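Supplementary notes for students who missed Thursday's class. We covered one full example, reproduced here. Read the sequence, then the structure, then the short commentary at the end.
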Amino acid sequence: MAELSYQNLLLVCVVGALIPLALGMLPRLRLPSVVLEIAAGVIIGPAVLGWVHADTPVVVLSWLGLTFLLFLAGLEIDPAHLRGRLVRSAGVGYLLSLALATPIALGLAAIGWIRDPALLVIILSATALGLVVPVIRDSGESSGVFGQSIIVAATVADVLAIVLLSVLFGAEGGPGTRGALLLTFAAVVLVLILTVGLAGRWKRLQQVLLSLQETTAQIRVRLAVVLLVALTALAARFGLETILGAFVAGVVISVLDRRPRERPHFRAKLDAVGFGLLIPVFYVTTGLQLDLRGLLSDTSALLRVPVFLLALLVVRGVPALLFARTLGMRRSIAAGLLQATSLPFIVASTQVGVALDLLSPVSAAALVSTGILSVAIFPAAAFALVRKGPATPPAGAANDLNSDPLPKHA
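Structure (token representation):
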């Protein structure tokens, strides 16, 4: 059995390594690696070839991959950006997303596609911050109003979606009890931030950390992993979703890591841990566990994918029209496409829904397939629009920005 387990894990890791190599050899194949990793998982998994099964080692590493992915998404949050006009617009946009998602979810529940409309509302309201931010950075748009508008909107959407999922669908008590537990969790995190911040001023500790950070001790990486595991375990202890703890751990690191020049390789090392091993295993395993046979078993099941995709585009895309005055209509549409890009949260929340018997495996597979398509289609379409549009903001945008200047993205 141990040998079989290592064979499964080996094949999963081989796929995770070969996908980026193939993309590097075929530069004209403009597909995100995550899409190909999930597709490869489907092909080698039980749904098609049956070469690989998600046994215990694979599932454990996959869960760690999801946790690390949300940790890195939290790490992308810069609290300095969460102020002023942009965050207010993002908050209004998220409320609009909830309002748009509610009748859609109620309608789909009425025809029997989902069992809990509230869960679908939350699923449709999120954005893949950890996927969108790197795309925006690679495009060179991260410091401009276009990139900052999307980053702030995605940040607000991810934070609120994770909080709502934890409060409404956590393991302990009712929503009121879970809300109180969430406040307690937030208080503990705040105390932790203050304690670590004060400890960081201890010169002797600073010297030790500096001397160990580039040795085999890799002390900052180890401490970051301790924080990640601690907050994940604490969230579980409070009956909240573990993804909340993972996400908050990334936010805490972002708040405390205010001098990146003193540790220039720290975040790159965290990326190496995540994207070098854990996150590819998560994506490939997502494909292994995708109920493709159930999805293809009848037309009504398969029809859910385009319907969910359209719903995701409406729920997260329409609020981007709030940016039309600042960005212009073309770039607002592009922002809507990027805001409608979602996958990690969909995977995590569908797992919660299936575990609580609030979502059927077929509907979960349809939603995950929707997320895969959103990652494959929406960012490419968004930047196709951006390249065709004007390079400068529309008239009046400069005045809007000067009235509430944007901080530069780190």
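Commentary. The mean pLDDT is 81. The CA atoms of residues 24 and 67 lie 27 Å apart. If anything here is unclear, bring it to office hours.
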